[in-house]
Amino acid sequence: MLAESNKQLEVLNGGVFANGELPYFKDKIAKTGHFPLRPRKLEILQINVGYMCNQVCEHCHVDAGPDRKEIMTRETMSLCLDIVRTTGAHTLDLTGGAPEMNPDFRWFVEEAAKAGIKDFIVRSNLTIIRANKKYHDLPEFFKKHNVHVISSMPHYTRGKTDKQRGDGVFDKSIKALQELNAIGYGIPNSPLRLDLVYNPSGAFLPGDQAAMERDFKKALKEDFKIDFHNLFAITNLPISRFLDYLIASGNYEDYMYALVEAYNPAAVENVMCTNTLSIGWDGWIYDCDFNQMLGLKVASKIQHIRDYNETVLNDRNIIISQHCYGCTAGAGSSCQGSVV
Amino acid sequence: MANSYYDPADLRKFGNITEWSEELGNRFFEYYGKVFEEGALSAREKSLIALAVAHVVKCPYCIDAYTKDGLQRGITKEEMMEAVHAGAAIESGATLVHGVQMMNKYNKLSM
Ligand code: SF4
Ligand code: SF4
Asked: Is residue B6 part of a domain?
């Protein structure tokens, strides 16, 4: 595994980019006047509350698992809430690991409501709900606090899902979705939001989000009577394990060509780093989740949330590299799907 | 020069055909793009038809392209293989139906 981010960046800066076959991301966005990439007003805080997870997916970006000890503390969570209060950010987006396994998860949800968060997103792997007795009541807890649930669903068929996420994951996910439906989540017009995330299980780009959503809705409804609100089609960025996979399978060059070919200048305007900050479990600040995985802290004097200062942080250039092409391909890609 | 007739990297250069005949090339690509848009048939259905035809005309570039296109659209491998069979069935049927011509000729020439 190209664990060290330096090695990954070397790959992303070398090869077809170094020899001029493909343009550097920086040069590409400079053509439309988007370089340097700068943040706008902060709207979303994406927070990684720790690497503990009930699953051990082969392609997990953070290598999450039951034995990981990296867990966000209550103090750090409080600092995140301070940012919400001072900046007026309206969305908290929790990732992990399984965010629900953080011992202070429920406390955080309750405090966030008091801090006036409009949209509290939990990226739930769904299987956690069935993993252990102490999580069985999660759907009710979510409902009580109007938590917005977003879950990964690699495909609406068992084979493809289990291949990406492990045997039995599909059936457990289906059960969890049915449970969420039963208490009102994902039902048309219900305020209890349940969205699904689709990302390709291989070296290809996601298809049109609206068409994929239609197919998912039809199949999940017909086969399992499941409802959900939106499907977010997310492009796999060439970093971490996915980058390893691309290289090992001989798909790296073709994939980069496909990303560059699908470059959409309209998507650059809305890449998520322009209105989002990503916070690591230990409080370090990153431009986005991907830069966090690459270990690239923000290019600012302020790099940790204990020193947070909106004005100073906003006056920074976002760190970009060739992985950013993943955010600007086709209709664009963010943690909430297409951006154009 | 590549030392084989087909080089997978050539698929990326498909667009270059306009360089030697701009108007015809552009018209072709415009037509091509239009054909595969959503219409009376969905883009998904057309992708499967394209995959079947790609096999019948045995174009390795098209097979690569429409396998990937199918994956992007969430088409399953079972659906893809059935499409290939549909193409193969028509192709073998087209051969076999000529057996009737053979039978006609045989009968005509025989006493
Ligand atoms: S469920 Fe998510 S966080 Fe957990 S191991 Fe799988 S990919 Fe990683
Ligand atoms: S990878 Fe991160 S920094 Fe690059 S464009 Fe996407 S969100 Fe922005």
From this structure: no
Check pLDDT > 90 for residue B17. yes
CA-to-CA distance for A48 and A42, rounded, in angstroms?
A: 17
- Spans in chain A with pLDDT lower than 70: 1-3
Q: Which DSSP helix (H) or strand (E) runs through A27?
A: helix A25-30
B78: CATH:
1.20.1290.10
The answer to whether the beta carbons of residues A68 and A52 sit under 8 Å apart is yes
Cα separation, A43 vs A16, whole angstroms: 36
How does residue B48 score in pLDDT terms, banded at 50, 70 and 90? very high
3-state SS record for A167-178? CCHHHHHHHHHH
Question: Could you tell me if residue B91 is inside a domain?
Answer: yes
**Number of domains chain B contains:** 1
Q: Is residue B77 part of a domain?
A: yes
Task: Using the Cα atoms of residue A26, residue A29, residue A34 and residue A40 in order, give the sign of their dihedral.
Answer: negative
Domain limits at B93? 43-109
> pLDDT tens-digit profile of A71-123?
999 999 999 999 999 998 999 999 999 999 999 999 999 999 999 899 999 99
A5-328 CATH, one of 3.20.20, 3.40.50, 3.40.30, 3.90.1210: 3.20.20
Which amino acid type is present at position B48?
L
Candidates A98, A331, A160, A100; CA nearest to A232 is A331
| pLDDT at residue A95, as a whole number | 96
For residue A1, what pLDDT is reported? 46
| pLDDT mean across residues, chain A | 93
Q: Which DSSP category does A71 fall into?
A: B
Compute the distance from residue A64 Cα to the ligand 1 centre, in Å: 6
Beta strands in A163-267 (DSSP E): 194-198, 231-233
Partner B contacted by A21 (CB < 8 A): no
Q: Is B86 contained in some domain?
A: yes
pLDDT in tens, A201-243: 899 999 999 999 999 999 999 999 999 999 999 999 999 889 9
Q: Which of A159, A212, A257 lies nearest to residue B74, judging by beta carbons?
A: A212
Closest-lying ligand to the alpha carbon of A60? 1
Which one of A48, A52, A62, A198 would you pick to mutate in the ligand 1 pocket, going by the greatest count of ligand atoms within 8 A of its CB? A62
